[in-house]
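seq as requested:
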Amino acid sequence: MKKGKRMVFRILTYGILTLGAAFCLVPLFWMVRSSLMNTVEIFMMPPRWFPSEIMWENYGEVFDTLPFQTYFLNSFIITAGCVGGTMLTSSICAYGLARIKWRGRNVVFACIISSMMLPFAVTLLPTFLMWRTIGITDSFLPLIVPAWFGGGAFYIFLLRQFYMSIPRDFDEAAYLDGATHIQIFSRIILPTTKPALAVVGMFAFLNSWNDFLGPLVYLNSEKKYTVALGLQLFTGSYRGEWNLMMAAACLVLIPVIIVFGFGQKYLIEGITMSGVKG
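struct tokens:
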């Protein structure tokens, strides 16, 4: 009887989870389906779930309508700079807060955590005025440089929690062998924390790749637009081309799926281990 109840419970549980997953995937399926139709067929009633004729040429027309190859290149440049800077500087800051004892460490960490409660809109205007005074607006620098100065409070917090879970015996043994903090950080801490670094890299990639407000504020030249701004152009200048807009959205989604596919094995492990303190 107990085995039968357990089996029924599992069937119900997996059935509910499957229905929930299918419900969440409907918008993605609708986007892919619309990208392979013409505009008239997209809005037909009753709606068609599958295109009567698959129109792969929609994806080619995306690059003919707007210079999306340039937008992709710009997004890759900005994202690569942000991911590299975030992973490097946030890990250094987290190491200093987790493994080195110094006066005022907890106060500094509290200030960093409290900065997470500030909305982005609050700091947007003074930050923009600072970059405009320096004279580097309408460039990629305002979007990349901040990532090289700590990377962000959330990433510092995530890595700090992970570093604190590593036994300090490793540090003490390295000190006895004459190792410096740089050697401990590069040869012991970083190789041990690959799952957490992978999580930080994934989150930094998603935030930078999907960022719309930052490029909208700092970039004025269309040749420097990112893919997020390129999608916005479809809603402004090409409102009737919904099939091309859906095709462009699918193209923008492909790098995200690839990154998640390679990093998903580290995602749960990194988040779980970052909350365990040794």
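Confidence is low (pLDDT under 50) at residues 274-278.
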